Amino acid sequence: MRLLVTGGMGFIGSRFLHYWLEKHPRDTVVNLDLLTYAGNSHNVADIRDLPGYSEVRGSITDALLVERVMAQEKIDTVVHFAAESHVDRSILDPQRFILTNVLGTQTLLEAAKKHTVSKFVHISTDEVYGTLGDQGSFNEQTPLAPNSPYSASKAGSDLLVRAYYETYGLPAVITRCSNNYGPYQFPEKLIPTIITRALQDEVVPVYGDGLQIRDWLFVDDHCAAIDLVIHGGRSGEVYNIGGSSERTNLVMVKRILQELGKSEKLIRFVPDRLGHDRRYAVDTSKIRNELGWKPTHTLDEGLLLTLDWYRSNQSWWQGILDGTYQSDTFNSNKEGEGP
User: Fold this and answer.
1) Distance between CA 72 and CA 52 in Å, rounded?
2) Burial (CB count <10 Å: 0-12, 13-18, 19+), residue 136
3) Which parts of the sequence belong to the NAD(P)-binding domain (predicted)?
């Protein structure tokens, strides 16, 4: 295959690149990333010399660049991770999320249609479904009811992908994952925030009462699911991907503090996020039954792997906290020009 991976400098995108190049070493992969604050060139440092890998710095909203990359690299598969994804930032600056997540996705779809790609996999989120009560779970037929500017922008991009399949016959598939965690996750997200603050004996903030419930998915299990969707997912379909590991935020905080040998006195309850969804949970029956996927890491196993990684790689997250990670040069002479 000849893949275009968008957002490959970010958390899930970079883990997918590692997974894919290890499992499919004969494939060609182009990593298109704007290297915004959430992108980190260190995330892909150990794959840069692989023969099938290259990177291009640029925005998914740049139609000329996207088309040039697809044409010159003869891309046949697009895996679209690139997105603004932090809910708090979307509350402060919704427009950026609309531009990247909606317009950027439409730009990619148009180029994919023009260059007749064989598969377009759009990586979305369970947050597009809204919030759940104490019982039940989201399935692929659950109506979309996003509650934040972030989730609304992702829902908009999902609908565009559906429209390009229905209108133009673009072979597109949507995946909606639950909360990912694992190595290389940017420290603004819940689990790395807890870990990095606790390791420095700093206050660990918890929104509201901390009883919001999330389903946790180890990032490597997510990558394996995407692999199955690329090879066997049916065009026009949606696949939910979840870890079947629901926990309240407060339980996660306390568990991590316990594993790190830190006191719960570090916990500080802070005013709740605006429009904070109470509970997410996804029904993964479809991807299990159709594609044979299931997570291979329990939450305990994945969490211990994650904690060990953050303890062993303090220079990585310290560079993010002090801002020095952004001083690194993007490893490409193709900036804004395509391959």
Assistant:
1) 15
2) exposed
3) 4-303
pLDDT at 327: 66
Active site (annotated) includes residue 310: no
Phi, psi for 131 (deg, rounded to 5): -125, 155
pLDDT at residue 336 greater than cutoff 80: no
Q: From the candidates 150, 184, 280, 310, which is the catalytic residue?
A: 150
Of the listed 55, 67, 84, 126, which one is catalytic?
126
> Is position 53 annotated as part of the catalytic site?
no
Buried b (16+ CB within 10 A) or exposed e, 276-297: ebebbbbbbebbbeebebebeb
How far CA 191 is from CA of 59, 108, 151, 219, 273, in Å, comes to 28, 31, 20, 13, 17
Asked if the model's pLDDT at residue 329 lies above 70, the reply is no
Look up the CATH superfamily of 2-327. Answer: NAD(P)-binding Rossmann-like Domain (3.40.50.720)
127 is catalytic: yes
Q: Which residues contact 137 (CB under 8 A, 6 or more apart)?
A: 281, 282, 283
Question: What is the spatial distance between Cα 309 and Cα 27, in angstroms, rounded to a whole number?
Answer: 28
Q: Which of 73, 127, 220, 277 is catalytic?
A: 127
Which residue matches tokens 């290259």? 54
